[in-house]
């Protein structure tokens, strides 16, 4: 089945691919922005939670401090009224002992707030006379001077001082409540900002998805139209290819018939020329005998020109004619051989390439010995399903060509090796001979073309035959070589000869 040749465009390079890539990048950036916003919001929540906790700790410490101050005043008054109740004294001492600890804890908690620190200084100043008065009252009671302790209590302004302490503490709690409200507003603003960012990200993602979907649907419709057009073109192309194949087949058959007819028709006059040449040669021998007798019996009858024409010119001319007719005969035989190769039906069969090469080497043993050369078969070689006769002809010609063009005085070494390359086999014939000029690499496969010094017999038909056979087997051949460094002929053949090649 014929296949249409189309220019492939990478999806990433097409306009739709570029748009989709841009939209996907935009969506990815939106997701990254949403992730960053979520991380930022999480961090803000953690900071707010820490500050809220700190505010409540400050407030609880202030309330606990207030409770201790109130409890100290209450227990002192109870102790003044009932000095014989020791539990009141113990409660007072416990509250008095815990008060400095709570003040120190509060000082640590508000270390970052200058306003609260000033309030704490004021509170400490307000507590100093209260604590001192309480201590004197307890000391008088413990000394048994209860009346003096009560008189001192009545003379005190403790109630006004406690009012000042309460106001200071209320002010400190108020400050913490303001800070808490401020931080709550900041958190709410951050939450609103986060939701706005999420909403924008969602809208952006929806837009990207909608635009991408529209682009994909448009691209799919274009692909469907292109596929229908391509199917139509393929159908037309199939017909065109079949027509062209039929035309080429007919043309090939006509060329083969023409080559056969021309070579056959050329052979008839060539045979006549060769026959008349033989007759001329026989007549020349008779004339030579006659001239010899005339020279012996009546030399004055034979001129020097006649003597030279019979003894030298005619034999030389007949020799040139014979040499030319022999060369023409070889060329006609070569054309006939090529035309027969084109008409021969290929017969694919499983082939052991190592065994095939060993048979070729054994058949050329005498020739290799005379040329002081060896053929090395590197194992393993890939087995093929192909035409045995064609492969035998190809490899025999290549090895024979390598033996023919070895360097004088250098032992010849011809290496045949093969390997698999995907669904094809690569077979190489490597020699250490004369090599081929790089300028002649392509034309050594042309009919009647030879490279280098023409000091070896041949008509330039071997490599042309090899190329024709390789093409018929669905492969190709090339050569790499440098003058004086040998040559490498490389065959690339299908591992399995396609069925259509069978009935070519």
TrEMBL record:
Catalysed reactions listed for this entry? ATP + protein L-histidine = ADP + protein N-phospho-L-histidine
User: Which keywords does this Swiss-Prot/TrEMBL entry list?
Assistant: Kinase, Membrane, Phosphoprotein, Transferase, Transmembrane, Transmembrane helix
EC class (word): transferase
Q: Which residues form the Histidine kinase domain?
A: 261-497
Query: Mind telling me which Pfam families this protein's record contains?
Result: CHASE3, HATPase_c, HisKA
Q: Does the keyword Lipoprotein apply?
A: no
Question: What are the EC numbers?
Answer: 2.7.13.3
SUPFAM superfamilies given in the database record: ATPase domain of HSP90 chaperone/DNA topoisomerase II/histidine kinase (SSF55874), Homodimeric domain of signal transducing histidine kinase (SSF47384)
PROSITE patterns from the UniProt entry: HIS_KIN
> Mind telling me which residue stretches traverse the membrane in this protein?
20-41, 193-219
Question: Does the record carry Membrane as a key word?
Answer: yes
Q: Which InterPro entries match?
A: BphY/WalK/GraS-like, CHASE3, HATPase_C_sf, HATPase_dom, His_kinase_dom, HisK_dim/P_dom, HisK_dim/P_sf, Sig_transdc_His_kin-like_C
Kindly provide the name given to this protein in its UniProt entry. Answer: histidine kinase
Source taxonomy: Bacteria, Pseudomonadati, Pseudomonadota, Alphaproteobacteria, Sphingomonadales
């Amino acid at each position: 089945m014929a296949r249409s040749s189309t220019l492939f465009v990478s999806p990433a390079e097409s306009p739709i691919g570029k748009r989709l890539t841009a939209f996907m990048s935009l969506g990815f950036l939106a997701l990254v922005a949403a992730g960053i916003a979520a991380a930022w919001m999480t961090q803000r929540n953690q900071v707010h939670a820490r500050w809220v906790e700190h505010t409540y700790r400050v407030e609880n410490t202030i309330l606990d401090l207030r409770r201790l101050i109130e409890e100290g005043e209450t227990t002192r008054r109870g102790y003044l009224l009932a000095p014989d109740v020791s539990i009141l004294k113990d409660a007072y001492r416990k509250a008095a002992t815990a008060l400095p600890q709570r003040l120190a804890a509060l000082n640590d908690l508000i270390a970052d707030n200058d306003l609260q620190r000033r309030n704490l200084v004021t509170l400490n100043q307000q507590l100093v006379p209260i604590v001192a008065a309480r201590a004197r009252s307890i000391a008088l009671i413990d000394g048994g001077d209860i009346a003096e302790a009560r008189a001192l209590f009545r003379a005190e302004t403790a109630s006004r001082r406690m009012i000042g302490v309460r106001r200071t503490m209320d002010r400190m709690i108020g400050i913490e409540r303001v800070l808490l409200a401020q931080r709550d507003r900041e958190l709410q603003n951050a939450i609103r900002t986060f939701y706005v960012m999420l909403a924008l990200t969602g809208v952006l993602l929806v837009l990207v998805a909608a635009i991408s979907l529209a682009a994909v649907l448009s691209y799919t419709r274009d692909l469907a139209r292109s596929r229908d057009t391509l199917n139509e073109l393929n159908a037309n192309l199939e017909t065109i290819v079949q027509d062209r194949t039929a035309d080429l087949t007919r043309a090939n058959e006509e060329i083969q018939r023409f080559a056969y007819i021309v070579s056959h028709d050329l052979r008839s006059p060539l045979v006549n020329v060769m026959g008349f040449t033989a007759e001329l040669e026989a007549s020349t021998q008779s004339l030579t005998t006659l001239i010899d007798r005339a020279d012996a019996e009546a030399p004055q009858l034979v001129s020097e020109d006649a003597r030279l024409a019979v003894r030298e010119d005619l034999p030389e001319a007949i020799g040139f004619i014979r040499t030319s007719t022999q060369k023409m005969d070889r060329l006609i035989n070569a054309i006939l051989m090529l035309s027969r190769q084109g008409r021969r039906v290929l017969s694919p069969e499983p082939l052991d390439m190592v065994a095939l090469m060993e048979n070729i080497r054994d058949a050329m043993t005498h020739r290799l010995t005379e040329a002081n050369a060896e053929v090395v078969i590197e194992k393993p070689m890939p087995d093929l399903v192909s035409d045995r006769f064609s492969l035998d002809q190809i490899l025999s010609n290549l090895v024979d060509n390598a033996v023919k063009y070895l360097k004088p005085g250098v032992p010849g070494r011809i290496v045949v090796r093969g390997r698999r390359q995907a669904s094809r086999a690569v077979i190489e014939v490597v020699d250490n001979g004369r090599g081929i000029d790089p300028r002649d690499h392509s034309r050594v496969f042309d009919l009647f073309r030879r490279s280098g010094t023409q000091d070896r017999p041949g008509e330039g038909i071997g490599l042309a035959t090899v190329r024709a056979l390789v093409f018929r087997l669905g492969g190709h051949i090339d050569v790499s070589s440098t003058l004086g460094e040998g040559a490498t002929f490389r065959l690339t053949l299908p591992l399995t000869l396609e069925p259509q090649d069978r009935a070519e």
